[in-house]
Amino acid sequence: MHNIRVQFTVPNVENVVNLDVHVNGEKRNLKFRVETFGWNAENGSSEDLVSILRDRIMNYDSEWELYHIGSPFDDKIPVTFKFKHTA
User: Fold this and answer.
1) Count of beta carbons in the 10 Å neighbourhood of residue 19
2) pLDDT, tens only, 40-54
3) I need a labelling partner for 16 at 20 to 30 A (CA). Which of 3, 7, 28, 30 fits?
């Protein structure tokens, strides 16, 4: 199956974004969650921070898979997860 990525902005998101999309006429519901993790360079080297982030992602709720890692801002890095079981 081919994948397509579409960047979207959804204001005022609390926890989970639910998107209904149509693929080849078939309706699908996709769920995304954005978590922010601390990214303070004063707390270690870049390698240390990457290791910590990798550990948090690997040990995240198993029903969610990594979708996107954003650019750091305000000593935080946004990480988007996609719910594995879509309808």
Assistant:
1) 13
2) 777 777 888 889 899
3) 3
